[in-house]
Amino acid sequence: MAYELWSQDIFSKGELSPFMYARATVNEYGNGLKIAQNVLTYPTGAAGKRFGTLYQSTLSGFTLPTELFFQTFQYLNEGTYQLIFTPLNIAIYLEGLLVANVITTLNAYQVYNLSYTVLGPIFRVAGTGFKPYDLTRSAGAPLTITSIVSNEFTWVGAPLTVGTPYPIRFATTGTLPSTSPQVIIDVTYFARAKTGGNAISIYESAYNAKFNIDPFTLNTIGTGVNTFTVLNTWSFVHTVFKNLPVYDFNGGTTSYDSLTFTPSAVTGVGVTITISGPGYPLLDASYIGGAFIGGGGTSRITAVASVLSFTVSVQDPFDATTPIQGSLSVLAEPAWSDKRGWPKVCSSYQNRALFANTASLANGFYASAINDYSDFGDLTGDDDDAISWYPTSNNVNYIRFIVPYRSITVHTNSGIYSSPLSDVTAITPSNFTLQLQDSTAATVLEPQAIDNQIVVLSGNDAHQMLWDGINNAYTSNIVSVISEQTIRDPVDEAAYADLNRAGSRYVFIINRNGSMAVFQTLISQNVAGFTPQIMEQSYGEAKFTQTSSDTNGRAWFVVRREIATANAPIAITGFTASTLQAIGSNLSTLRPTAITFTTTGTLPASLPQIATNTYFWGVGVFPGNDLKVYLSQEDAIANVNNIVFSSAGITSNVIAWPQTPIFTLEELTQDVHLDCAIQYNGSLTDTVTTGPLFNAQDVKMVGDGFGFNAIGINNQVTFEAHGEPVEISEAYIGFPIVTIIEPMPLSMANGPSAKQTTLTKPKHIRTVRFMFNNTIGGTINDVPIALETLNLVFPGEPPFPARGIFEMSVMKGWDDFKNPTYTIYHDEPFNIQLLGVFYSVDI
Fold this sequence. Notes:
This protein is mostly beta strands. The chain is 2% helix and 48% strand. The radius of gyration is 33 Å and the shape is globular.
C-alpha cells in the first residue's frame, strides 16, 4: 500500500465537458473542473465567484427578447451611454438612468438585427430594409445662471429631472463662475438636478453626479451673463452621403454595347452626354449619383433629362467629344439606393467608415474616404479616396460581419477574409484586397476581438482566429471542444477586459436558454477556458438576455426576470380541512403561487395559524375555486405539510402574487456578489424600500459588512438577526449567486507512463486539503468551511475575508472511486476563491 500526494492548483480550463471525464491523461483534465457554476477562473489559476450585478432600471417598450437591441455608446472621453433599441423607440440611459427617448420607424425584426459602429460622436446603425441612420447628440437652449444657493447653481426655466446626471457646458459674456476645481469653456462637466429641478451641483463625471460624489465648490456666479447648455438633445436621422459608390448592374447583360455616348465637352460641370443607337437602356432618375466611364474620362451623373440624355460632372477629362462606343464604356447606378438596397452591415477602421451587404450586392464591401464618413465616391484612386471591393469564393458569398482588428476581417457565409496583412501602411484603393484566411463562418453573432485574437462563434463552436505576426496571417483553433456543454444556441456576445484583475480578458456569450458562457483568455499564459453562469431567484425565472461593455472595464446586461405582482383580492367563502374556497382565484394547479391574506374581520383559523403581511404558497385545486396553502414553496412543490383549516374566517381575502415578466438593466460590479443588487446608503434603519423586485423572493443582504437573509414583502426588506431588527447605514440587497465548484475525479499517474492512471482504480483518500483566499462562508459536502480558529473570530465584528487551508479527514473505504468528488457550495453575498486541492492517498 503506497502513500502518495496529489494536487490540483490550476483551474484555467474552466468547466470540462462530460466527455472529458475519462481523459485523465490530458493536461486539460488536471487544469479543469467538473462543475464551475457561477465561477470565473483567474489567470493565476484560482477559481472564484463571479461578479455580481447592480440594478439600474426596469426597461419598457417590448415584451420579447427578439424585440430588443442593446449596445453601449462610449461618447468620446466623457462617459458611456446605454442604448436600448425597441420597436419605434430608442431609450437612452446614462449611468443606468433614463435621460432621453428618441422616436424611430424601426420594427422589431430590424431592431433585433441591427449592426452598429461608433464614429466619434456618432452612433451609426445599419440593417435590413432601411437606409443607415446616425444617432447624434447636441446642445439645448442656454440656461442663464441666476444665483448660487447651498452650493448649487439656480436658473429660471424648465426644470431638469431630479437625481439624473446631465452633461453640460458653460459659456459667458464676461467671466465664468468661480468654482473649485475651476470650470472652463468647451469642457463637458456633469450636473445633478436638485431642489425641484431648478438647481444643479457640478461634477467631474456622470458616475460622480449620479452618486453625489465630490461636487465642485461653487464660489461666485462670475460677471456678465453666464449660461450653461445641457447636452441632451438627440436626433436619429438617415446618414447623409456626399457621394455613393457605383455599380454597373447592367454590365453583364451588354444592354448598351451597341449604343454610343457623345459628351458635349471634355471637362466641366453640367456636361451633357447624348445617347444614340438601336435600343435604349432603362435610363431614369435612379442613375443620378451614378457614373459614366469611357473615352478616357470619368464622370458622375448629376441629372437625367430623358432616356437619350443625361448630365455629368467630369472628374477625369474625356479624350474628345466624339462618340464613345458603349462596349468600351461603363454606365453605372449608385450601388446603394431604395431600388438596389442599402447596406446591412457597418463598422469603421483607420478613420474610414465601412459598409457592406446590400440586397443587390450581398458581397459588396465599401470603405469611405479617410476622415470623411459620408464620402463613398469610388471613381478615383487617390490614396485617401473611398474603396469598393467584392470578395468571392467558390460559392455564394454574402457578408455577415466586419470586425476591425490588426486588419479588417470580413466574415461571410463561406469564411473569413482579411485586408492586407503584410503592409504596415494604411489601406488605399491601390493596395486594398480581401484574401480568404479560413473557412470558419461566423453564423449569427459578430465576432469579438480580444487578447491578440478574434473569437468567432460558428454554431455552437468557438474558434480563436489567432494573429500570427511571423507569417502575417490568421490561424484558426477550436477552443470550445473541451467545454462543449457551455455554448448552446448563442444569441449575443461581448468582449470584456476586467481592469481590476491583471490579465483578465473575457468574452461573454449569452445562450438562448438564458445562461451565459464566459470564455477567459490569456494567450501568453496558455489560459483558455469556459465557465457557465446563470441567474437564479427563488420565485420565478431569471435569464441573461443581452450584454455590452466599454473600454473602461465596465459591462452591462439586460436580464429577463419574473417578479411577483399582486392580483385583486378574492373573498374567502368556504373551507375544508385541507383547502380554502375563493371563487375565481384560479391559482395554478402545477406551480405554487405566492399569496397573502387580508381581513377586516378575522382570518381563517388554521394550524399553523396564517397571518397578514406574510407570504404563503398556494396551489389551485381543480376547477379553480379552491386552493391548498403551504408555509413554504418547497412544501408546496412537494405537496406535503399543507396548512389545516378549521374555519373560513370573517370578511377575509386571499391575494395571489403571480409572476410577471420584466426586463432589467443591470451593471457588472465587483463590489458585491449579488445579482440585481440595490444599494442603500443613508441614515440608520432596519427597513429598506426596494420596490417590487424582491416581493416574495428570498434575498441575501450585506449590511455594514454583515450578511443577512430576508424575504421581500410590500416593496421592502427588513434586516434582522436572531429575530430582532438590526439597524444599518450601508447595504446591498439582491438575489444570491449560487457558486458550485466540483473538482474532477481524483486520478494520478501510476507507473512509468503518463497513460497509466488510477482514475478507475480503488484508492483510499486519507485527507483532502482545500486552500482558499479572500473567502467568507461556504460549505464542502455540506460541511461549513472554517478558515479561522475561534480566537481569530471577534463577536460583533463583520466577517473578514480569510486565507487559509480547510482539511477534511475522509477515511472512506477503498471504493471511493465510485463517488470521488467534493462539492463546494457558496450562496453568501461574499466572495470565495479556491487556490488548490491537495490529496493524501493510499493506492
